[in-house]
Amino acid sequence: MQPASFRDPYFGNRKGNFQSKDTSYEHFLATGGQVSNGAVAVSSINNTDGVGAGTDRYTQHCGTGSNFPPHSAWVSFENMFNDNKKIMFSSCSQYSQANDDGNEVGSIYNAIQQVAQETKVDHRFILAIILQESGGCVRVPTSNFGVRNPGLMQDHNGDATCNSDITRVVQNPCPQDVITRMVREGSAGTNDGDGLAQCINESRKGDVTAFYIAARLYNSGSVDSSGDLCKGIATHCYSSDIANRLTGWVQAPHGCSLDG
Fold it and tell me: What is the largest CA-CA distance in the chain?
């Protein structure tokens, strides 16, 4: 992923997704994951499921998640996707790769909607993680800070990528089926690690805090013993970043200094 000096636009886990197994949270079967708690599972697609566009600003959130934005403050998927197109159409340039074209951005949209129905993970949460991990660059390189993280969601040692660190092949255009598999591996898990669905289940929460804890688990594999989502290993701003993306942050200055 990009070096710590990268700031505008701000995305990327910056320190890799560790998905450590050394955690008090139980890890579920990693492949084919689906949200099991009906209180946070989403079984149908509604593109106008939020408050509209929200506000493009950043507020640092720390703590256990109980003081993070409530579900009622989340933007709608339609607004979130459209407002972040400017990032998706330009995010590959930092990797010296061809930027996404309209068909590829459309394929990301299709993949999110399909996988959200398969996994029962809120489509806005999937989109927020994609933006956090790659900015939606379909040709994002694989990061490796001790764990191999390929694809749009920089998942745990998955197979799907349009910029292979194994074969060195870069696909342009990036096909719909590969994009869908990238989103599925990040959301439903891989043979080697958990996806968003498993992380939501591992949170053992039936309210909005499940998503903020899940974000921390996805990035680091553990939550600090204090319960503070800004503490522990990996990217300390990660859950705060996700909360802000879900409430309208796009290009306002990044207001979290915990990672230097």
Answer: 45
